[in-house]
Amino acid sequence: GQSLEQPSEVTAVEGAIVQINCTYQTSGFYGLSWYQQHDGGAPTFLSYNGLDGLEETGRFSSFLSRSDSYGYLLLQELQMKDSASYFCAVRDPGGSYIPTFGRGTSLIVHP
Amino acid sequence: GAVVSQHPSRVICKSGTSVKIECRSLDFQATTMFWYRQFPKKSLMLMATSNEGSKATYEQGVEKDKFLINHASLTLSTLTVTSAHPEDSSFYICSARVTPGGGYGYTFGSGTRLTVV
Predict the structure, then answer these.
(1) Phi, psi of A63 (to 5 degrees)
(2) Phi–psi pair at B4, nearest 5 degrees
(3) Which residues pair with A101 in a beta bridge?
């Protein structure tokens, strides 16, 4: 089976930097993805890490350490619109492509 | 990019009636579609995986006779909630895998908020 752990809530102020951690336990591994979901909306894909290291996409970066079964999403220059839930997800390694999502981290950005 | 169109976005129905939710892949062929259910402030719970032209695979604990899934074409999958009850009220989301070139991610429909009264 697969399981992911991430904090339930993170609070930060506008302009700050915040890191959302994710640890996972899987029977195999085929990359770690991150999704953003605003209240009432659908999740949108943010980033993917298949190999160790940092992937940067604008204000968002994602990091993976396969030896530690750990990754994080880094959000810089926080804006109010970044208030949302963030989910890490792993994919079934057996070829079925079924993703398993973490419970989600609610990010609250204050002025 | 790859888009999945989901309808309706909101539906209110009476207890005992059935509701159909449609998901269409607009600019790609989705051989596999995933159906999720999400409760407020909770994660996405996979209900079933639908494969074009074959029976859906349901997750443990999901009643296949209650949640009917049909994937008749490469661009359309439907979820029908039969004999709906208030406890079926939830946010239902479909998702399709985006093949490499689309970010190794999944693209989601906009979700359907079902309220059973």
Answers:
(1) -125, 150
(2) -115, 125
(3) A89
Q: Please state the separation of Cα B100 from the chain's center in Å.
A: 23
Collapsing DSSP states into helix, strand and coil, what is residue A57? strand
Residue-wise pLDDT for A36-74, tens only, equals 999 888 898 899 898 999 999 899 999 999 999 999 999
Q: How many residues does chain B have?
A: 117
- Residues 76-95 (B) with a CB less than 8 A from some CB of A: 93, 95
Q: Judge whether residue B100 has pLDDT over 70.
A: no
Measured in degrees and rounded to the nearest 5, phi and psi for residue B87 equal -70, -10
Share of chain B above pLDDT 70, in %: 93
With H, G, I as helix, E, B as strand and everything else as coil, classify residue B2. coil
pLDDT the model gives residue A94: 65
* B111 touching chain A per CB within 8 A: yes
Which SS3 state, helix, strand or coil, does residue A45 take? strand
Is the Cβ of B28 closer than 8 Å to some Cβ of chain A? no
Pull the structure tokens for residue B62: 């999901």
Rounded CA-CA distance A89/B46 in Å is 12
A41 contacts on B by Cβ (under 8 Å): 110-111
Q: Which of A43, A17, A49, A58 is nearest to A104 (CA)?
A: A43
Contacts of residue A6, defined as CB under 8 A and 6 or more positions apart, other chains included, come to A20, A21, A22, A23, A86, A87, A88, A102, A103, A104, A105
A15-25 pLDDT per residue, tens: 999 999 999 99
